[in-house]
Amino acid sequence: MSEPVLLEERDGALVTLTLNRPGARNALSSELRSALTERFTSLAGDAATEVVILTGAGPAFCAGLDLKELSGDSGETSRAVGGGADLVGAMNAFDRPIIGAINGFAITGGFEVALACDILIGSTEARFADTHARVGIMPGWGLSQKLSRLVGIQRAKLLSLTGNFLPAEQALAWGLLAEVVAPEALLPRAREIAADIQSCVPEVMRAYLGVIDAGFAESFGEGMRIESEAARRHAASVTKEQISERRQGIQERGRSQASGAAGKG
C-alpha cells in the first residue's frame, strides 16, 4: 500500500499537515493539490481547529507543480497552470493562522504555497526560487503581487526575472521569513508559536487576522477604514468584565515571561 501524499497530525486544536512526496521533492501532483484543497476546505468548517502548521517531508518543502505530470498527455497542464487557484483559494478561505514551517526548497508553485501561509518560519536549509520565467509559465497563485509587497519591488524582480535562489538568512533579512532556526528546531518552534496564538482570545484573533489580510490588499487609507469599522463592531460586543478578566491574564503572562527571561540570564 502506497504512502498518503498528505500526512495529518492533530494535537488538540493544532493540526500539522505534511506534504509527503519526498522522492519527488513534494511536487504538487494533481493528487496532492486535491488533498490539500480538501483538507483546508474541511478544516475551515472545523471549529475545533485553531492553527495549522504546513511543512514538507524530506529535504524539500515543495518543488512546485509536478512538471513530469504536466508534460504528459493527460491535459493536466491546462487545469493546473493559471486555473489551479482552488488550493491557494482554500488556504485563503481558512480564517485561522497557517504557519509555514519551511524545511527546505520552496520553488515556484511551492513558493506560492509558502506565501499563502500567514507566518513563515524557515530552517537554515530553506531556499526560495521563482522559476516561472525559466519554465515558461505564468504565476497564478499570487506570487507576482505578494512577493513585491513583502520584500520590495526591486528585490521581487531580481528573484522572479532571474530564477535565482534566495537562502534562508537572506530571506530573513529581506522580511520574507519571520525567523530562521536549526532544522531540528523548526517544528518545535512552529508549535511554540502555535501555542502562543492559541492563548489569545480565539474570536478576536480570527477577526484580527482578517483585518490584517483585508487591509494588506488595499491602500493604507482603506486599510485604516477597515480597521476602524472592525473596532467599532467589536467594541459593541465586548463587556467591561471580559476586558478586566483578560487584562489580568495578560499581566500574569507578562510576569511569567519576565521571570523566565530572568532565569535564563
Key phrases:
265 residues, alpha/beta, 2-enoyl-CoA Hydratase, Chain A, domain 1, 2 domains, 6-stranded mixed sheet, 4-stranded mixed sheet, 52% helix, globular
What is the secondary structure topology, with strand pairs?
Blueprint: E1 6-11, E2 14-19, H1 30-44, E3 51-56, E4 60-62, H2 67-70, H3 76-80, H4 86-93, E5 98-102, E6 105-107, H5 109-115, E7 119-123, E8 127-129, H6 132-135, H7 143-151, H8 153-162, E9 166-167, H9 168-173, E10 179-181, H10 186-198, H11 202-216, H12 220-235, H13 240-264
Parallel strand pairs: 2-3, 3-5, 4-6, 5-7, 6-8, 7-10
Antiparallel strand pairs: 1-2, 8-9
Helix pairs in contact: 1-4, 7-8, 11-12
Description:
There is one protein chain. Helix content is 52%, strand content 16%. It has 265 residues and is of the alpha/beta class. The protein has 2 domains: 6-198, 2-enoyl-CoA Hydratase, Chain A, domain 1 (Alpha-Beta Complex); 202-264. The strands form 2 sheets. The chain has a 6-stranded mixed beta sheet with strand order 1-2-3-5-7-10. It has a 4-stranded mixed beta sheet with strand order 4-6-8-9. The termini are far apart.
